[in-house]
Design goal:
Helices cover about 15% and strands about 25% of the residues. It has 3 helices and 12 strands.
């Protein structure tokens, strides 16, 4: 894998660009924020994560979607249960994944962070394929954007009390971190 002009390229990488992004105000890239997602909640596979992040989620597909289909959300990357990586937003741009957030005194993590969503729930073990893909991506991001260093945080860490993902089932040791 490699990064070219903010886009991840290589085997096992899909690109599904979205309109849900904007420019980074300072251009800084110094944080990775890890998330967990499944749509509908607790169900894996299917097109619904893509549809959410590109703004094309149909509320008729599941009752849960009625409350979220109008949200304008995005992330840089999504890693499914098989370790397939989908990129929606260039790393050079601001994806809309963390909401109101802060990390080590810096507010608005979307401004300087890269969002990585993992298909899962707070209580469902993540797969070995996901950890392998995530480790490759984190290594590549650190090499490309050296200001990241060891700045990898959970969504729950940057938005405490509001978010709980990627949850207790995520094993930080498998990516060389302890949170």
């Amino acid at each position: 894998m490699r990064i070219i002009s903010g886009w991840l390229e290589g085997s096992g990488v899909r690109q599904v660009p979205t309109k849900n992004f904007n420019a980074r105000p300072q251009g800084e890239i110094s944080l990775i924020v890890l998330h967990g997602i499944s749509l509908p909640p607790g169900k894996f596979g299917g097109p619904f994560v893509d549809r959410l992040f590109v703004g094309d989620l149909d509320p008729k597909d599941d009752p849960y979607f009625e409350g979220i289909y109008k949200l304008e959300l995005s992330t840089h990357l999504f890693i499914n249960r098989q370790g397939v990586i989908t990129q929606y937003v260039s790393f050079l741009d601001r994806a809309w994944h963390a909401g109101r957030s802060s990390y080590q005194g810096q507010i608005e993590c979307n401004d300087f962070g890269i969002g990585i969503e993992l298909e899962g729930t707070d209580t469902t073990e993540y797969t070995q394929e996901q950890y392998e893909a995530l480790n490759k991506v984190i290594g590549l991001l650190r090499a490309t954007y050296p200001d990241i260093k060891d700045r990898v945080a959970s969504h729950s860490e940057v938005a405490p009390g509001r978010k709980t993902d990627p949850g207790e089932a995520f094993d930080y040791h498998k990516i060389g971190l302890r949170l």
